[in-house]
Design goal:
By secondary structure, this protein is an alpha+beta fold. The protein folds into 2 domains: 3-174; 185-291, 3-layer Sandwich (Rieske Iron-sulfur Protein). The chain has 7 helices and 10 strands. The longest helix has 28 residues, at 114-141. It is elongated, with a radius of gyration of 24 Å. FE2/S2 (inorganic) cluster binds next to loops.
């Protein structure tokens, strides 16, 4: 597969962008309609509680189960019919896992835009196609007379889900969806460095400053100064352009993730990784920060 040509072609499909722009608001509105429960469900599906996206964990179920089915089907085709019940069970397990993968994937996808959204939608469409092939295969497996067709549909489904997995991998490794965009902590200052004169940070405001080579968010709330990484861990949004909330947290301007200013922890997704936080002190009129080292490390 010529990866650039394939990805470029997907990126050029305007119908994918139009479909994404129609589906995304409906997904987000469905969660919003659920109020606080909807927010908690959305956070759960993102994997905020796990500190890691939940979707790739769940996708191992259908991929593993359907790989098992392909091996057992192959053995059956070689005359080992005793493996047929195992193959059928593996197809069923894969279908159950595909439901979980779909729900978590749709939730993560709702936080993407642009070419990421197009590739994600194509990834989803291929998965829907693969799931339909496996579901049809399962129905036919129960009718002995159509066993060959059933296995053929499963094999076809395996090819489709493999192509989809390629796109899913490109979203993570090529487009950095689901990776921690603050994972450069080695470059954050380990010793205190001056970043701003104290009198330039007014109460109830936020500022982007540079600590060495990396951007840091400074905020002053109720007289206290806080500092966390400026680049949102979700997809790199600029936190200083977000909202400083009354409860001492900051909301990212891009997809609405909320982080505690105190320790950078995720209060609400789609982010799943916390923001690195900084120790803050005022020295000779200058605000100084250094990377906070959690106890025990
Ligand atoms: S970049 Fe997506 S929530 Fe911040």
């Amino acid at each position: 597969m010529d990866q650039n040509t394939t990805i470029d072609r997907i990126a050029q499909q305007s119908w994918l962008g139009e479909a994404a722009d129609a589906i995304r608001p409906a997904v987000l509105e469905a969660f919003e309609a659920g109020g606080e429960a909807g927010r908690e469900i959305k956070n759960f599906l993102h994997g905020t509680w796990l500190g890691h996206p939940l979707h790739p964990v769940i996708t191992d179920i259908p991929i593993g189960a359907w790989t098992t089915a392909a091996v057992l089907d192959g053995l059956e085709l070689l005359g080992e019919e005793k493996y047929a019940p195992g193959a059928d069970a593996a197809v069923s397990v894969g279908l159950a896992g595909a439901m979980g993968a779909a729900v978590t994937g749709l939730t993560d996808w709702s936080g993407t835009t642009g070419v990421r959204s197009k590739i994600g939608l194509m990834h989803a469409l291929l998965n829907v196609g693969a799931t339909a092939l496996y579901a049809t295969s399962l129905v036919l497996r129960r009718r002995k007379a159509t066993r060959g067709t059933a296995i053929g549909l499963s094999m076809l489904g395996y090819g489709v889900v493999s192509a989809s997995a390629y796109l899913g991998g490109h979203l993570v490794y090529g487009k950095q969806v689901g990776v921690d965009h603050t994972a450069t902590a080695d470059t954050y200052p380990k010793e205190f460095v001056a970043v701003l004169p104290e009198n330039e940070l007014a109460e109830n405001t936020m500022r982007r400053v540079e600590a060495g080579e990396v951007p840091v968010l400074l905020a002053r709330k109720n007289g206290e100064i806080f500092a966390i990484a400026h680049t949102c861990s979700h997809l790199g949004g600029p936190l200083s352009e977000g909202r400083l909330l009354d409860d001492g947290s900051v909301q990212c301007p891009w997809h609405g993730s909320v982080f505690s200013l105190k320790d950078g922890s995720v209060q609400s997704g789609p982010a799943t990784e916390p923001q690195p936080s900084f120790d803050v002190r005022v020295n000779a009129g200058q605000i100084e920060v250094r990377l906070h080292k959690p106890e025990g490390r």
